[in-house]
Design goal:
The chain has 237 residues and is mainly alpha-helical. Helices cover 77% and strands 3% of the residues. It has 2 domains: 171 residues, Helix Hairpins, CATH 1.10.287.1490; 48 residues, no CATH class. The protein contains 4 helices and 2 strands, in the order H-H-H-E-H-E. The protein binds zinc ion (ZN). The site of zinc ion (ZN) has 9 residues, from loops.
Length: 237
Amino acid sequence: MLNEKLLEVQNREIELLRLKTKLKELLKEKETKEKLLKELETKLESAHRKLEEKKKELKDLKDFILYKQERIEELKAQKERVKSRSEFKQILRQIAKNEDDIIKTKQEITKVEAEVETLADAYRKLKEELAPQVESVRSEIEDLEAEVEKLEKKIEKVSRDIEDLKEGIPEEELRRFEELKEKFNGLVFADISSGACEGCGMTFSPAEFKELLKNLEPGKTKCPYCGRFIYSKVATR
Ligand SMILES: [Zn+2]
């Protein structure tokens, strides 16, 4: 067996594996960054929501005063039309009660206004503090996305290359190759140019290495230790 094309298939498959591992790492990193971004945004949103809720509370109090003022105007109009002294007194009491409510509400407003200011300040500070971080995490995510896209295209291309290569190889050879891949952990053809078998890691003695190189027939010669087909990337002879 050997076919230069099968060695090429092996090399591309190894590259594909490396690319897929890298892709997985990038996606994981992106996920981590996205989580961090979400946390930062949630912090900001929460501070903003607290501020908005307090503002709403303030508005409700102000509306309440407007309502009370209208009520007092109505009562004053009624007072002009009363028929009995007791009714007159009752209206006066109601007016006094509404005025009292206004005074209490105004005190409450002073307190809530101070709270609004505190919350606005806290929100502004938090924004200042987190904005640079949010920005940098966002740009990191963008970079990762670009890298992921590039890698996905590369993976697509290498996958296509593998398919194209396989088209030119007889089915029987491919079947055998798959079997050997299973047996040899994905590495059927091992380079020995470094003086050791790339497959099993065994270092050859100088004499042995010389002998192997001398008689090396790609696709036929096997590593004496692991049985993989050996070849030499560097023509040493
Ligand atoms: Zn070996």
